[in-house]
Amino acid sequence: MFKSRSIKFKRQAKTNGEHALVNICMAELCKKAGFADSKNMVQRDLVYLCERIESQTGVMISLSTIKRLLNGQFSRLPQIATLDAIAATAGYRNWQDFKAAKSQLSVRNGNGLAEKTPAHANNRNIFSNARTLVWTALFIVAAIFFWAIMTTGKSGLSNVDKARFSVEKVTGNDIPNTVVFSYNIDSVQADSFFIQQSWDRNRRVRVYKHHYTLTDIYYEPGYHTAKLIANGKIIKTVDVSIPTNRWFFYAKEGIAKGQPKYILADNGFRNGLLKLTPDDLLKNKIDIQKENIFVNVYFPSVIESSSDNFVLKFRIKVDVLKNDPCPSFAAEVFCQRNFMFFTSTLKGCSSELFGQFGENVLNGKTSDLSALGSDVKNWQKVEFRVVNKNVSISINNAKVFSSGYRNSCGLITGLGFISNGLCEVDSLDLKTISGKDIYPDGFEH
Asked: What is the pLDDT of residues 275-284, one digit of tens each?
């Protein structure tokens, strides 16, 4: 009976110790990402953490997993790929490096911060200290033994170079567009496989060995990067281009929420402006009293200009719907790799601002982006310039923001304006740094 109780105690001690390490690692990760209080993070903050982990490590962790890690709601230790990813994002080489650092810190604190005990208490503490050392040794042995059991015999991840992944469109450039993914993962050693059709984690489908075809539907135009994922790591990618060759309009509940509701406007171009009206929404049975974002995008079939060197100029204003207190717009230059966009809203709402330039992700809650705020309800003159991966943004002829990024975003694949109201856009001009037109001047239907 004593032996069984001892084993149970050691198992519980090991579990509690590992849980505590995960909690510490997540707290450090959140602090490094700019979130001082990990317990009061909202959905948008959690999405930002997922994107930060993926951009820094290439490992994709789902929103539900991030929530469980933050709240300690897991009975078994997460997969080593997940642990390595959160440790690397927190600033360590991997999970073992993180554990070693915490172990060394514990030893240093124990030696350096121990208080002297009175002479008459030494004898009383000898047995207690010895017992503590014994249990500590047993805990370390049990942890090593448990880790060996957990990792021995597991498939790990190998033979990824033998994976095959390709795609074919079956409906030209129509929207919606069904595509056929062909894959072969029979020789890859891994515990799980998924195909994700774009950056959106909600569009992830599990696939299995000895199956070779998956069909899926793209409901939105764009230049998408589909991913073949094994054990949470991206092992293959294929590009899927679904252009419009014209301006295309739709509404959604959110960037990563709901199906798009297409807006077939009688005339989305009025007096030289890119402009939708509430009547256009009503004709397409879109309830203007509900929360929506409105997306105006242009994706050409031919892409040939670098996203690391361009100048985009335009004038813009937002027509407010449902009396939204924080009207906003996002201007995005779509790229083959990663994102290139910024948002603007009223100065008083600047906590809600976001931006991303390559791997450089900015959140208005953890960075001061207030300079990007503007009176979006009235016309604003904007210049978005990128020169050799150095970004600058000017509003009304005043430079308000600068940043940079390291990794090329590839070619420009499209252009878009996204808003929680209805954008009016004028004087659009997108050129290379040398002055060559990337898209034709004006708006064409």
From this structure: 899 999 999 9
